[in-house]
Amino acid sequence: MKPHRYRLLLLTLGLSLVACSQSKPTVAPSPDLGQQGEVYVSQSLYNDETGPLTSLTGQSLQRQKTEPRSPATPKQLEKGGSLKSQSITPQTTPSPIAPGAGPQLGKVFEGLSNDDNEALYPFLTNPTRPYRPFPPDTVGDVSEKYYVQGTNSGLLVLDKSGNRVAGPVKFDALWEGFKFDGCSLGDGDPLVHYDRQAGRWVISQMRFHIHTLDPSNPVTVPPGSESYQCVAISKTANPLEGFYRYAFQIDKYADNDYGKMGVWTTGYYFTFNMFPPGSRPEEGEDEAALKGQSVAQIGKASLEINPNVDYTQPFVRLMAVNKADMLRGKPAKIIFRDIPNVVETTNSEPGGGYNFSAMPSDLKTVKAPAADTPNTIVIYGFPPYGYKVPVLRLYDFTANFDRPSQSKLGQVSEVVVANYAPALQNAPQPGIPAEKGLDNLGDRLMFHAQYRVFPTYAAIVVNHAVDADGKGQLGVHWYELRNAGLGWTLYQEGVFVDSHLESGGTNTWMAGVGINKLGEIGVGYSLSSNKVFPSIGFTYRTKSDPLGQLRQGQTMALGGNVQNPLIRYVIPDPTKPEVEQVIINRWGDYSVMSVDPSDECTFWYTTEYMSAASDPKQRADWKTVIGSFRSPDCK
Questions:
Q1: What is the mean pLDDT of the chain?
Q2: CA 80 to chain centre
């Protein structure tokens, strides 16, 4: 499928983030430290700090967008044999439901919504600019005292009873007044993490294509800087007591899209889907026009690290940031490594299986592994993207910040998993034609790859959507991987279809999965069908339940209306004579499950839904919920 992105650069409303003090920004001297062995070493472009934040009401410049679905078919795969073959007949029966009662529902409260975006951007209601961002890209995490939620394009701080402590505020507000103005022009893909070992909040978003449509608000950027990641890390466990702020250049030409982050022992590990201009013709033309060059001249990524990567095609870039530097607010060293676009194995077609949407391991546990433990990167591979059967590819990435040339990346395992057909169909809604159902993003792993340390092993849990019955019903394919010291193996997997609202099952997708200190697995997800409005469900399994089975689902938030995809909206772009129209069927693009560090038992989940108050005549009138649940066995 051809990737697509629709962007809008919104005019500034003025800056009003209030801070008691703000330090002078640090401009990193000579950030390009160069190639060392198989990695590329650099450091932050800029960094500074804010004082205690007394108000989060920032009204900063923001550009909205939707994200690409999946990359253009890579040239390597076009050369590499059958793209449509599937060696084994797909399974068509979901896993059984485990016996026993479901978890105990705890706090449930409303989070951010597109109504908040209209309040933050009043001109969004202007008929000449009828735009509301979608999908929300809902993220969040929980600490001992707070829950922080982020979306496209809001940020909200709550206590754990649901009281709003600060916000809603534009997600960009954390970078207002930052020397690198591009960070207050964010492109979304928000990230919110709580580092349980350090007691810090890490908040991030991407930014690329530095230009502005507002000549009164020029952007201060280094010459040629085109894509980067903006990161803010709190000074304490209180997200209101100030942040250290950073800008990291990722590449001069290639977009750093769909970024994901994992908290780790000595660093913060990021993964990006990189799109060189030549892999996105419509965007390459725009970028070439801005630079006065041809697409061919800028068709590749600017930073070529790995000789086994085709830098004219989409690829995965890894970035590890030195945690010790960021905790002190110092210029932060970064280490880059790129994963080959395709790798040929016994489970791939001739020419290799394609690597896309890598997920870094993310510590959601108070106990950390040994400091030198590599971060395990997980990739879902499936037919027809160059694979004979579905697999989980695992890479171990160790960033050595003292001796970068000794940093290591290697594929350590390729686990063959149950062969369910990929989820390529849309999720239905009441009264909406099936072909215009909600997007499911079944071509990639969902956020996060949650990592937990147990006395005798480590575990990673991940998930993605599949065709659960061979007839188009969406289900959640979830996995628990274990490493007892001899490498990663598949401990259990299952395909879950929620049936508590409909006896035949309701489409179940866009899930978040977590694992607590007892090894119980919690799952939250979206639900919809021809009879059920887009809703939020949740379930779990105990360690004693049959392997591969989850208990019957329950409702966290019951939907009451549809997201109407038939409403078209126009994105005005003064640089183009024509306008673009989009059918609104995007959903997600992900959701987040966390485990409460206070008890290491309670699961916290956040995602979008369409409430009874959602207006189907509005464009993407999504709401979000933050909810908690736990097992009665976990104390």
A1: 83
A2: 30
